[in-house]
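In the design runs reported in the main text, the only information available to the sequence generator was the tokenized backbone. The following block is the verbatim input for one such run; it is reproduced so that readers can re-run the procedure and compare outputs position by position.
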């Protein structure tokens, strides 16, 4: 009588079977939290974006960035940013347009100019941040109902139309387009500002408002926009 030889599974098969529950759990977790890849590929680049930014007056020195990280070290808000200022400079120069314009970093910049003052290569980092903000606004890819880009757009439109801003009207537009409920939390301060004459209910204008439009158009032509 012959004894049947036991069938043995290859080692990798037994390992897969043993870890199957963990693998399945990892797949389900990934589906729930929507893991995003952080590696950047050549196909993610928008060719010419970096050169386009560097062609703007004030942004030319970006090419000489040595990635020392001084800008990130002196930035008081870098701990809250998704990309540090150093990373934004590198991504911009390397043509990663979508990553830069969709980041929150450019909107968190407080324009304190610490990065510009301390940069050993005299790169005007703050001016580059402003240029990136303007491009994000122009392409409409900033976070919706995010106060900073909404304020920038409303401010610009009011200046172009009247030559100056009316703070009361600007604040009302900001609240209506971002979070109108927040206005109720500031009503007392608003009344105090009205009483002291700091806010006006009358739309403020300048006489020769066309001069403002001509200046802005000249700047846009110089930038090639």
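Verbatim output:
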């Amino acid at each position: 009588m012959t004894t049947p030889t036991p069938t043995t599974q290859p080692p990798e098969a037994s390992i897969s079977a043993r870890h199957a529950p963990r693998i399945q759990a990892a797949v389900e977790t990934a589906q729930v939290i929507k893991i995003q890849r952080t590696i950047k590929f050549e196909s993610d680049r928008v060719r010419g974006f970096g050169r386009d930014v560097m062609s703007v007056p004030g942004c030319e020195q970006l090419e000489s960035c040595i990635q020392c990280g001084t800008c990130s070290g002196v930035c008081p808000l870098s701990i809250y940013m998704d990309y540090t200022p150093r990373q934004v400079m590198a991504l911009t120069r390397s043509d990663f347009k979508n990553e830069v314009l969709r980041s929150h970093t450019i909107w968190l910049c407080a324009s304190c100019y610490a990065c510009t003052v301390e940069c050993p290569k005299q790169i005007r980092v703050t001016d580059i941040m402003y240029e990136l903000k303007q491009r994000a606004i122009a392409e409409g890819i900033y976070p919706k109902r995010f106060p900073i880009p909404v304020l920038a757009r409303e401010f610009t439109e009011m200046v172009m139309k009247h030559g100056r801003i009316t703070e009361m009207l600007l604040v009302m537009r900001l609240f209506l387009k971002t979070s109108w409920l927040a206005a109720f939390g500031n009503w007392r301060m608003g009344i105090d500002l009205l009483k002291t004459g700091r806010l006006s209910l009358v739309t403020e204008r300048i006489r020769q408002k066309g001069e403002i439009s001509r200046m802005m158009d000249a700047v846009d032509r110089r930038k090639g926009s």
